[in-house]
TrEMBL record:
Official protein name in the record: NAD(P)/FAD-dependent oxidoreductase
Pfam families: FMO-like (PF00743)
Domain of life: Bacteria
Keywords: FAD, Flavoprotein, Oxidoreductase
Enzyme Commission code: 1.14.13.-
Length: 510
């Protein structure tokens, strides 16, 4: 048998969630941990997404850790290379590299009920851990639709998150499939260089101007000299988005005013009425993520760009065919078709206490207690778990809230003492999920009239948090042991579960 390296905590992934968890573990005095990373460097989605024009649509000072402020962000909305460099710096400053195991993709993770630990098989070795922190992120595994004839396409095919930098698009006929956050950055970046660009659009996005600018040297000097100014800037950006969240979660009809601004933004660049009609959404703004760009519409108005208001349905040799019958000859196909968000592949590799995979447990829809703990998966804590996503603010605030929960989870294990595990009670998970879904009913994400990647195959929104980040911070400030079963190892080395019970009303009021 392969000898396993045993650690107290195994963190899966080295993006914002994984690195943040590693920093928090060290701050809690936990140094016996590893970060298992499938690639050869840190960065997560900001390592994988290196396509032309890649940048964040959240302001830089808000899209960074509160415990690792960066006074030297070069722009108000920084590009991929700057965000990745920031994460590399976090790994260095907080001395995380000795804990990171690169080229170690998790192949299987199985709960050992007798030893109360997780056995983990990776491409780089075998491990066991008392606690697993899953920080793989929802934007990590690209999704390419099953298109008839795609396998026989003679040209180049790749996803935006797996950009082929060795393939030169200059002078090529390119099909861009999708109109999400990646596509609206790729289109204006490659449009000047390609011979012809055909954009396949199933649903037009709402696009607002991106108010981006360089951050001056004077501003950066001020932030370095007076760190509280960086904190104040972050706080102001956060507060504005907290106020905006109310319209998304409680009063979606108020967003009609924002729609008028978005239409003006379109009209400024798109003069052709027919093209404008193609690009005008028929759903409430905010139902899908609002996209930010000053260059997307001007690029679509150029003579070498065709907008096909229909999805790609078939490939015949070098010919791509839309659902409406439109055809185009292309040399390359670029998919900006998103990720496996509600069907994350990692869920198929996690086997819990009952011998079921996480994917099987989530067949009726992903759900986890406070976005962190799934019933039947003891000592397994998720970062950016079910219903923790945002459509209005920075995910870093959500991540740090879940790290608070993780820290208290570890403290509770220490207080309980001995070989012990916490398993979320099914009743507590269900009660939490019912409250989340009840709040979701009036949000723009559920009432806006669109089909988005926030929804799973059954139409359930298992992705978005239906409230403010402050509400989520409050909900995850501590672990409530009445929401968990305490599992210990008895004298005969078989796991036994604590017999204390909690009523439904007690869970609901927790």
């Amino acid at each position: 048998m392969t000898e396993r390296e045993h650690v107290r905590v195994a963190v899966i992934g080295s993006g914002f969630g994984g690195l943040g968890a590693a920093v928090r573990l060290r701050r809690e005095g936990v140094t016996d941990f590893v970060v298992l990373e499938r690639a050869d460097s840190v960065g997560g989605t900001w390592r994988d997404n290196s396509y032309p024009g890649c940048a964040c649509d959240v302001p830089s000072h808000l899209y960074s850790f509160s415990f690792a402020p960066n006074a030297d962000w070069p722009r108000t909305f920084s590009g991929q290379e700057h965000i990745r460099a920031y994460l590399e710096n976090v790994a260095d400053v907080f001395r995380l590299r000795p804990h990171i195991r690169f080229n170690s993709e998790v192949k299987m993770m199985t709960w050992d009920a007798e030893r109360l630990r997780w056995d983990i098989e990776t491409t780089g070795g075998s491990y066991s851990a008392d606690l697993v922190v899953s920080a793989t992120g929802p934007l990590s595994d690209p999704k390419i639709p099953d298109i008839p004839g795609l396998d026989s396409f003679p040209g180049k095919v790749f996803h935006s998150a797996r950009w082929d930098h060795d393939y030169d698009l200059r002078g090529k006929r390119v099909a861009m499939v999708g109109t999400g956050a990646s596509a609206i950055q790729i289109v204006p970046a490659i449009q000047p260089d390609v011979r012809r660009l055909t954009l396949f659009q199933r649903t037009p996005p709402w696009v607002m101007p991106r108010v981006d600018r360089p951050i001056s040297g004077a501003e950066r000097a001020l932030h370095r000299a007076l760190p509280f100014t960086t904190k104040a800037r972050r706080g102001l950006l956060w507060g504005i988005r907290e106020l905006q969240t109310q319209a998304f979660t409680k009063r979606p009809n108020e967003l009609v005013l924002v729609e008028q601004l978005a239409k003006r933004n379109m009209a400024h660049s798109i003069k052709d009425p027919a093209l404008r009609a193609k690009l005008t959404p028929d759903y409430r703004i905010g139902c899908k993520r609002i996209l930010l760009s000053r260059t997307y519409y001007p690029a679509l108005a150029q003579p070498n760009v065709d907008v096909v208001a229909s999805g790609l349905s078939e490939v015949r040799g070098s010919t791509v065919v839309a659902a409406d019958g439109t055809e185009a000859e292309v040399d390359a196909i670029v998919f900006g078709t998103g990720f496996h968000v509600t069907d994350m592949p990692i869920a198929q590799r996690v086997v819990g206490a009952e011998g079921r995979t996480l994917a099987e447990a989530w067949q009726g829809g992903m759900q986890a207690l406070r976005g962190s703990s799934a019933a039947g998966f003891p000592n397994w804590v998720s970062v950016i778990g079910p219903n923790t996503g945002l459509g209005t603010s920075s995910m870093i605030f959500i991540i740090e809230s879940q790290l608070n929960y993780l820290a208290d989870y570890i403290r509770q294990l220490d207080v309980l003492g001995g070989r012990v595990a916490l398993d979320a009670r099914p009743s507590a998970v269900s009660a939490w999920n019912r409250r989340v879904q009840e709040r979701m009913k009036r949000t723009v994400w559920n009432t806006g009239g669109c089909t988005s990647w926030y929804m799973d195959a059954s139409g359930l929104n298992t992705t978005i948090w239906p409230g403010t980040t402050a509400e989520f911070r409050k909900a995850t400030r501590r672990v409530d042991l009445t929401e968990y079963e305490v599992v210990r190892v008895s004298a005969d080395k078989k796991a036994e579960t604590a017999t204390e019970t909690v009523t439904e009303s007690e869970v609901a009021s927790a």
